[in-house]
Design brief:
The protein starts with a helix and ends in a 6-residue tail after the last helix. With 121 residues, the protein is an all-alpha fold. The radius of gyration is 35 Å and the shape is flat. It is built from four helices and no strands.
Length: 121
Amino acid sequence: MLTSRAAILALVVCAIALTLAYPLREYVAQRAQVAQLQEERERMEDNVAYLEQRSEELSDDEYVEREARTRLHYRYPDETAYIVVRPEAETGPEHDEEPDEPWFTTLWESVLQADDPRGSG
């Protein structure tokens, strides 16, 4: 059935396969790591480009003034700022009262009720 030549050939093929398996696995792992590092580098380059653009924007005095006026509502001393309040904003939400106990106490009580085997909750 199985000759000695076939057995030796099978042994040699297995030895070659085992010898090549580890380096091949390492090669594939390193290629994956290289691809991951290239993607990370591209993200970093995009981030650097965004930060450089942002730095240029922030070095422009007109841009900084515009942002201070719109986002921070800054005004010059001789300017008058007006705030318009809508009538529905004055009433506020109906549930303004404070709870009697902290939120974590209510949470813990609900956990205890859920864990109660008698189902009394």
